[in-house]
Design a protein that fits this description.
about 230 residues, mainly alpha, Tetracycline Repressor, domain 2, about 65% helix
């Protein structure tokens, strides 16, 4: 008689539950996923799951977090700001598959009964590796002279994901390549150039008027003066 398998506990059990939750999402979708089906497939009980996640939305968001990388696996560097942005938007669009779209729509639908779920969703979206990747792209563009120096506010780093998620939700399917290019050319590039121009104006305005009007420095740092 084969020996019974040891019971899984702690993180090992949590990982199994989250992996099975994701498989269920892919197979049956958010609306048909149940805690009972996950528990049965994970060979555990509903109370065990509810001790860790208080509702289906929390469980699904945790499963999504486990499936999403915390950093870009392959750095983006095409040699131009526009090329980098198109490559980044394309990569995000490829990840914005039907499962992610359905998860977001389903979780938002449950927010009326579980308001705390909205904050969990926001946390999940803020954990995207988008911020560091975008800042690296911008820094390289500044170094190449394509863009004036600019620090990206948090909301601006979330714009690509927000735009692509909105397109995916509306279209209920993969984004066409031209839509990716249009978002870069018509929305995000103008936004970046506008932010950079505003940063330059802010630096200029912070310089005292007297300093702006000083004559140029010549020679060893002495101003040339006309003989009286």
């Amino acid at each position: 008689m084969p020996e019974p398998k040891p019971r899984r506990r702690g993180k090992e059990l949590e990982d199994v539950i989250l992996d099975i939750t994701w498989v269920e999402l892919v197979e049956v979708g958010y609306n048909r996923l149940t805690i009972e089906s996950v528990a049965k497939r994970a060979r555990t009980s509903k109370p065990v799951i509810y001790r860790r996640w208080s509702n289906r939305a929390e469980l699904v968001l945790a499963a999504w977090a486990r499936q999403t990388p915390t950093e870009m696996a392959v750095p983006i560097d095409t040699g131009s700001l526009r090329g980098d942005l198109i490559a980044l938007f394309r990569r995000v669009a490829e990840r914005a598959n039907s499962v992610m779209t359905e998860v977001i729509a389903g979780v938002m639908g449950e927010a009326f009964r579980h308001p705390e779920v909205v904050e969990l969703l926001h946390q999940r979206l803020r954990q995207s590796p988008m911020s560091s990747t975008l800042q690296a792209i911008v820094d390289r563009a500044v170094a190449r002279g394509e863009l004036d120096p600019v620090e990206l506010p948090a909301r601006v780093t979330r714009v690509p994901l927000d735009l692509i998620r909105n397109e995916t939700l509306l279209c209920r399917g993969p984004m066409p390549e031209q839509a990716v290019i249009d978002l870069v050319d018509e929305v995000y590039l103008p936004l970046l150039h506008g932010l950079a121009a505003r940063s330059v104006e802010a630096v200029h305005d912070s310089v005292p008027l007297a300093a702006r009007d000083e004559p140029a420095v010549h020679g060893c740092g002495q101003h040339e003066r006309q003989e009286q």
